[in-house]
Amino acid sequence: MLFNSVAFLIFFPVVTLLFYVIPHKFRWVILLAASYYFYMSWDASLIILILGTTAVSYIAGLIIETTDKKALRKAAVVIAVASSLAVLFFFKYFNFLSESVSAAIRMFGLPASDLTFDILLPVGISFYTFQTLSYVIDIYRGRIKAERHFGYYALFVSFFPQLVAGPIERPENLLPQLKKKQRLSSENIRIGMKFMVIGFFKKVVVADALGLAVNVVYNAPSEANGLGVLIATVLFAVQILCDFDGYTNIAIGAAKLLGIDLMQNFNDPYAARSIKEFWGRWHISLSTWFRDYVYIPLGGNRCKKPRHLFNLFATFVLSGLWHGANWTFVIWGGLHGFYQMIGNVTAKPRKKLREKIGLENSVVLPLWQRGVTFVLVCFAWLFFRANSIGDCGILLKALFTDWSFGFSFVSDTVTAMGLGGAMFVLCAAGIAVLFLLSKQVRTLETMRTARVAYASQGEYGTILYTVAVAIVALFWVYLSSQTGYTNSFIYFQF
After folding, report:
1. pTM (two decimals)
2. Is 323 part of the annotated catalytic residue set?
3. Of the residues 283, 308, 323, 336, which is catalytic?
4. What CA–CA distance (Å, rounded) separates 40 from 47?
5. Cα 176 off chain centre by
6. Pick from 232, 221, 224: which is nearest to 427 by CA?
7. Per-residue DSSP letter, 419
8. Rounded Cα gap, residues 215 and 217, in angstroms
9. In Å, what is the CA distance from 198 to each residue of 245, 407, 475, 491?
10. Which candidate among 167, 179, 355, 477 keeps its CA 20 to 30 Å from the CA of 414?
11. pLDDT in tens, 315-335
């Protein structure tokens, strides 16, 4: 069930109404049933996977906490982690690994056939797997206590607003809120509804509209020229932010209407002045997960420089692989790891150079740093969006060689991408309104996370949200009639 579907627009109000009508002690039942129904709407048979992962991690957590035997504690955490990763590997990576090995064998002139299975990637498996892993590992580390109530723990794993694309929640944040008696308040309604409106706007009006133009280039790379690749890549940078952040806003808003605060997952990532800062603002729940459960256990920066650089690179390669079973994602992650390594090694020389030429406190420096960071991020996005390694080569060749000059070259490129006339105006207007809404998001996020009282945004805010709702409705109707339009969220494939 997609957030941006008629089914969800019926499902969510019904669940919210039932949640507040029934007594508190039974509310977990309603949310758990709703979460499983939400998940089963894609494929009912896949509920077995999430139930199995939940049961194994729940039992492991109890064993780890209740026994004093180190061997048994270690066995429990190893079994829980290994079983979860084994399921994730089979469904997400087995075919990829088999095809890669077969291809490598054939490179040496030896016969090899692909051993693959016709399996469907379970939606959200990467997200809820990481959530259960953090739970078990944190119990083993002594950071949290095991949850005794299986129903609440199952709800923690499957809570429908953030089940299929995050944020990847930590047990210490979400579990206590699921148990707390929530009251329907006007503040939660206002904040929650506004987050959802903003999320729908980002997804439907900006991301989906830009996606039509991006697909023209990336789904037919051999027909693209350098300008087309450049425009499509920049537009994809905006598309993926609005698509994923739009999902997150809807998830945060839906949870807020149920009295629950999910963690912030995005914080103006394209305002970052370095790649390191970018990852402190982009998909925060995933970047902090890899920091806590991969980077730090590898040694972090508490080691010699070569090992520290290796830890950085390895963490980002694994992060890339987490996103999908394709070498394009591995390269994307490796690029960000390489950026981090270069940034780390050159940090002090760059600072000395800026001080020497008098740029350290210049007003130009932040603009330059944001520009360079955005260019590096966009270059990496090319690999992320490309459908294959072969397509990457075609797109890169076009980007650096296939250029011309003149108005007709620009006009023909833009027209071929479907960005001429009305579509250009619609996309430009959508992005313009998005900037107006960004201030509203920061205000709402402050009220939500700092637990400050809701402050009315006056007539301006009311008009802005009313216009946003109207635009979302119009775009929904318009885009549904377009060939090649898909309304799924990008991160659902991960």
Report:
1. 0.90
2. yes
3. 323
4. 6
5. 24
6. 232
7. -
8. 5
9. 10, 36, 14, 18
10. 477
11. 999 999 999 889 999 999 999
